Amino acid sequence: MSRPIDALLQEQRRYPPPAEFAARANVDDPDVYRQADEDFEGFWARWAEELAWFRKWDRVLEWHPPDARWFVGGRLNASVNCVDRHLATPRKNKAAIIWEGEPGETRVVTYQELARQVNRFANVLKALGVRKGDRVTLYLPMIPELPIAMLACARIGAVHSVVFGGFSPTALAQRIADSGSRVLVTCDEYYRRGERIPQKRRADEAVQMAGGIDKVVVVRRTGANVPMTPGRDLWWDELMASADPHCPPEPMDSEDMLFMMYTSGTTGKPKGIVHTTGGYLVGVHATTKWVFDLKEEDTYWCSADIGWITGHSYIVYGPLSNGATTVMYEGSPDWPDKDRLWSMVERYAVNIFYTAPTAIRQFMQWGEAYPRRHDLSSLRLLGSVGEPINPEAWVWYHRVIGGERCPIVDTWWQTETGMILITPLPGITVTKPGSATRPFPGVKAAVLDEQGQPVPPGGGGYLAILRPWPAMLRTIWGDHQRYVDTYWSRWNRQTYYPGDGAKWDEDGYFWVLGRVDDVMNVAGHRLSTMEIESALVEHPAVAEAAVIGATHSIKGQVPVAFVILKSGWEPSEALERELKEKVAQVISPIARPDRVVFTPDLPKTRSGKIMRRLLRDIVHGSALGDVTTLRNPEVAEHLRQAFETAA
Ligand code: WT7
């Protein structure tokens, strides 16, 4: 953990906000930090005043660690804030969503049109028997029907659970079952790298596995002929055609659930992270406006998928609550060629662009020629999220994409935090490549040691958040104890433990290193080692498997699997391929191991826990740490040889 960060701390480059940018910035006074710190509840209450409420809150915060209630007694509706309230303003006919399909067709959805679609689908859901508090699973690609369905759920108080459209039927089934959804929204097919992905077929498989689904609403995306189960499956367009375009919004309590979003934990079972209405909306509204310096006339593009929290907060709720124009793209960045994103930036004159380090490293590898084909001069701000950004990638992004004139906001946050917590404010923060800089105003963070003491500047430890923030998760669906244990038990019940290693420097800047637990981050997607191991063990040949995240120049990390075969099976290239395929099928192609190393044994502690740290050392060619606590110390050297022979 110490090697990469030592290099980061030697990073001497400094990027002050360009004068031209600073002169027009939404935040131009560094005193915001002091003001917010003096009265953080007052700070968040001022932001809450920007939203539309049916009833104002009685108290900003009730904090019974680790349980927080924000804007207590307040009533509001997220769809009203993201749609209705813009209709009485000049935003009525402004583009809310500019969408581009992979084959190249476009759709512009104005706020007025969005309102009609959301209201209609809200009525469709009601007619299907969906009531306040019911969960609805959305298994859709990046098409406008996804945000429409999310906002329609929000309108009637249903809880959406968006499952990333690229997940396997097994992963979808698990999430449907855990959430107890009765309604699933999916589509016939969608386009990815020129291929048609059979989404409905995969959804059918999942519905069969999960049970409990009564109705499947199917969006026509490609117009393919897909099997429809009578009485269960219904076409989106047919339902919408007869739906009333007026649906009164449900006045939700601030603390009523808005959505749940599954994320990987250290055990195989994904955690349903629960977000509520008032605090979440205040948090994403504020951070969108200040971190991205959002202006009325901006075209804003976050290239994430809505199937991840980044898309929820910074494609849908944050931008729309600000009345912004948000761009959505269905397909792959290299289709039909590797300049697709830059072609879109040029054609839509995108001003703010937000993506992930894994994408930036991919763009670097493809080379400068692709962005150079296009006029990127509309860009004025760039963002990064998902994992630590290597300073070289940062500098490349700044130079090649940003033309050396755009500030970069490296934003640290999580599914659980709901909103950005550590980030530059682009008009006032001097940035350092590789550092997410400082906590957002009102947020308090630190780097702590095992005992909960702050480490000295330059030191490394655990990232910690020291006070509640409005968009924080409230619980894990169906498992409040796991919420308490996972996030609020490392030091005390008032200190949030994100599970990331970090250092801070003399200026109080944070340098986030990545996960300290057995969760890995592959191309910005969080995967648990356990989930992949479980998938491998499902194969008849596999007795035991251990997976670690190995450093990878493009994806950040990739899974490497160590596998013990059952007797009667022999290692072979064919079997290696089969196992990789197995993981891709059970979880997602994202989780496909980069390598599978066959071994007769695995290093284990006396309590029988696989020592993954040692496997990491072997893969990275580092000196093997202490092996004396192992039950089988001799296995380490064997493994190293096995790994090197396989390489
Ligand atoms: C984990 C959260 C938040 C949306 C994307 C991922 C890592 C995220 C940064 C950053 C260093 C980062 C952390 C965090 N991470 N942003 N700017 N610098 N690391 O959401 O799947 O919940 O993953 O992503 O390790 O804990 P997620």
TrEMBL record:
Catalytic activity: acetate + ATP + CoA = acetyl-CoA + AMP + diphosphate
Keyword Repeat assigned: no
Co-factor requirement: Mg(2+)
Residues that coordinate or bind Mg(2+): 537, 539, 542
Domain called AMP-binding enzyme C-terminal: residue spans: 531-609
Keywords attached to this entry: Acetylation, ATP-binding, Ligase, Magnesium, Metal-binding, Nucleotide-binding
Domain AMP-dependent synthetase/ligase: 89-469
Limits of the Acetyl-coenzyme A synthetase N-terminal domain: 31-82
Annotated binding of CoA, by residue: 192-195, 310
Mod. after translation: Acetylated. Deacetylation by the SIR2-homolog deacetylase activates the enzyme.
Binding-site list for ATP: 386-388, 410-415, 500, 515, 526
Enzyme Commission numbers on file: 6.2.1.1
One of the Pfam families matching this protein, by short name: AMP-binding_C
EC primary class: ligase
Function: Catalyzes the conversion of acetate into acetyl-CoA (AcCoA), an essential intermediate at the junction of anabolic and catabolic pathways. AcsA undergoes a two-step reaction. In the first half reaction, AcsA combines acetate with ATP to form acetyl-adenylate (AcAMP) intermediate. In the second half reaction, it can then transfer the acetyl group from AcAMP to the sulfhydryl group of CoA, forming the product AcCoA.
NCBIfam families linked to this entry: Ac_CoA_lig_AcsA, PRK00174.1
Family affiliation: Belongs to the ATP-dependent AMP-binding enzyme family.
UniProt protein name: Acetyl-coenzyme A synthetase
Species this protein is from: Geochorda subterranea
